[in-house]
Design a protein that fits this description.
single chain, about 120 residues, Oxidized Rhodanese, domain 1, four-stranded parallel sheet, about 40% helix
């Protein structure tokens, strides 16, 4: 039976734990990978979390899958991964995708503002 986008989003939010900006900063300091899945135009307007890897949501499965020709070795199944977008919805969906690919330590920071407003360093 087909599902709606609302149902997909609800399932993603239920599967991927939400963390605060402070928690994300602590995890990043201990080696977690921060992945910004926003579009390039969004990054150009606001900058990104210092040290974050930019992977637009449409490319995520190819960068995260170890069998892909364009796999990014920053993605390791034993490394915690923190995702964020502008508001948290795309990050939740991306997190669910990573869980489906076999990643287990996947977290949703929410939006970029959650990082910036919690005192996280930003690079332009």
């Amino acid at each position: 039976m087909p599902v709606t986008s609302k149902q997909l989003l609800e399932a993603a939010h239920a599967a991927v734990p939400k963390i605060s900006g402070k928690e994300a900063q602590e995890m990043a300091a201990n080696g977690a990978l921060i992945v910004d899945i926003r579009d390039s135009s969004e990054l150009a307007a606001t900058g990104k979390a210092a040290g974050a890897l930019h992977v637009p949501r449409g490319s995520l499965e190819f960068k995260a899958c170890s069998e892909s020709a364009t796999h990014d070795k920053s993605f390791a199944k034993d490394r915690p991964i923190i995702l964020h977008c502008a508001g948290g919805g795309r990050a939740a969906l991306a997190g669910k995708l990573l869980l489906d690919l076999g990643y287990q330590k996947v977290y949703n920071l929410g939006g970029f503002k959650d990082w910036a407003e919690s005192g996280g360093k930003v690079e332009k």
